[in-house]
Write a sequence for this structure.
C-alpha cells in the first residue's frame, strides 16, 4: 500500500515535470542585464534575445539594471521566482570577481543561482584616449609609472573584472591610477572616448568599434594569443603580466531551484541559436568566441573562475577600498 502511494507520488511528480517542460514558456521571459546599455553584457544579451524568442516561441525581453559592479542586477535575479521567466546574464564580474573581493556581497555565487549556459568568452583590452599620448605598451607603462597619481581609469563598476584587472595591473607594476566606477562599460566608455577619463580596460566587444574608429587606442589585450582584429597589439602575457591576461564570459543563469527540465529547454534553445551561422558571425564579429556548453560545465566554470579570483584577492591583498 505504502509502496503504491510512493509510486503514485513519483508518477505524479514526473507528470508535473513533463507538463512544466511542455508548458514552458507560456509567457514572456525577462533577461536581466546587470549593467547599463552599451557594454558587452548588453551587446551579447541583445544578439541572443531575438533569435531565442523565435526558438522558444515567447518574447525574451532584455532589461538593464546597472550598478554595484553588476551586483544589484544579479541580486535581483537571485531573489526572483525560479520559474524560468526571470533569467539574467551571468558575467565574470557578477559571479566571480565581485563575490571574491566584496565581503558584503548579498548572494552566494555557488548556491544562489542555477547556471544554464555559457554563451561567449571575450578578450579584454586596455585602451586609451588618443590625447593621452602613448600609442604602445612600453610608452604607456613609462607614462603611468612616472606619474604622481594624477591619472584615472574608468571601469564598468566596483568589484567587476575591469576594476579587478586594473588593480592587479597597478599592484604588479607598482603604479597608482585612480579608479572611477560607472554603472557599466557603456557609460565608462563614453567618458573615455570624450576624454573625461584617459583610459579603460574594457571587454573587447564594446571597445572594438571605438578602436576601429581610432577614437580609442589599444595598448594591450587579455587573450591567450594576439587577436586577429588587433594583430599589432601585444597580450598582457607578452609584456610580462600573465596574471592580467584573463578573459571575460557571458552566460545565462536563473535563481536557484529551477526545474531541470526548464533549464534543459533553455539550454537546448540557446545552443540551437548559437548554431545559426548568422548569430555566430555576429558574436565573432565582436571579437568573442562562441561557447554554448552544458549547465554542469557552466557551473564548473563559474566555480573555477571564482576560485581563481579568490586566490588573486588573497595573494595580492586586494580590497575594495
Ligand atoms: N562583465 C563586464 C564587466 O564588468 C560587464 C561590462 C558591461 O557590460 O557593462 O566588465
Amino acid at each position: 500500500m505504502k509502496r503504491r502511494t510512493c509510486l503514485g507520488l513519483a508518477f505524479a511528480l514526473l507528470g508535473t515535470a513533463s507538463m512544466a517542460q511542455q508548458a514552458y514558456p507560456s509567457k514572456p521571459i525577462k533577461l536581466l542585464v546587470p549593467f547599463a546599455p552599451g557594454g558587452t553584457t548588453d551587446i551579447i544579451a541583445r544578439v541572443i534575445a531575438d533569435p531565442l524568442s523565435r526558438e522558444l516561441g515567447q518574447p525574451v525581453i532584455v532589461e538593464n539594471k546597472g550598478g554595484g559592479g553588476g551586483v544589484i542586477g544579479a541580486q535581483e535575479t537571485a531573489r526572483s521566482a525560479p520559474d524560468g521567466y526571470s533569467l539574467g546574464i551571468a558575467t565574470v564580474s557578477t559571479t566571480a570577481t565581485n563575490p571574491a573581493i566584496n565581503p558584503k556581497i548579498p548572494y552566494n555565487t555557488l548556491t544562489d543561482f542555477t547556471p544554464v549556459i555559457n554563451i561567449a568568452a571575450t578578450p579584454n583590452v586596455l585602451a586609451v584616449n588618443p590625447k593621452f599620448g602613448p600609442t604602445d605598451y612600453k610608452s604607456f607603462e613609462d607614462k603611468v609609472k612616472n606619474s604622481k597619481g594624477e591619472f584615472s581609469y574608468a571601469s564598468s563598476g566596483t568589484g567587476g573584472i575591469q576594476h579587478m584587472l586594473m588593480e592587479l595591473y597597478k599592484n604588479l607594476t607598482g603604479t597608482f591610477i585612480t579608479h572611477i566606477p560607472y554603472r557599466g562599460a557603456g557609460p565608462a566608455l563614453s567618458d573615455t572616448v570624450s576624454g573625461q577619463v584617459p583610459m579603460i580596460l574594457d571587454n573587447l566587444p564594446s571597445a572594438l568599434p571605438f578602436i576601429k574608429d581610432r577614437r580609442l587606442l589599444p595598448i594591450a589585450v587579455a587573450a591567450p594569443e594576439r587577436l586577429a582584429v588587433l594583430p599589432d597589439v601585444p597580450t598582457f602575457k607578452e609584456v610580462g603580466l600573465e596574471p592580467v591576461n584573463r578573459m571575460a564570459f557571458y552566460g545565462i543563469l536563473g535563481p536557484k531551484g529551477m526545474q531541470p527540465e526548464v533549464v534543459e529547454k533553455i539550454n537546448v534553445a540557446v545552443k540551437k541559436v548559437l548554431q545559426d551561422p548568422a548569430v555566430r558571425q555576429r558574436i565573432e564579429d565582436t571579437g568573442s568566441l562562441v561557447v554554448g556548453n552544458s549547465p554542469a560545465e557552466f557551473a564548473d566554470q563559474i566555480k573555477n573562475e571564482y576560485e581563481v579570483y579568490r586566490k588573486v584577492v588573497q595573494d595580492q591583498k586586494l580590497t575594495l577600498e
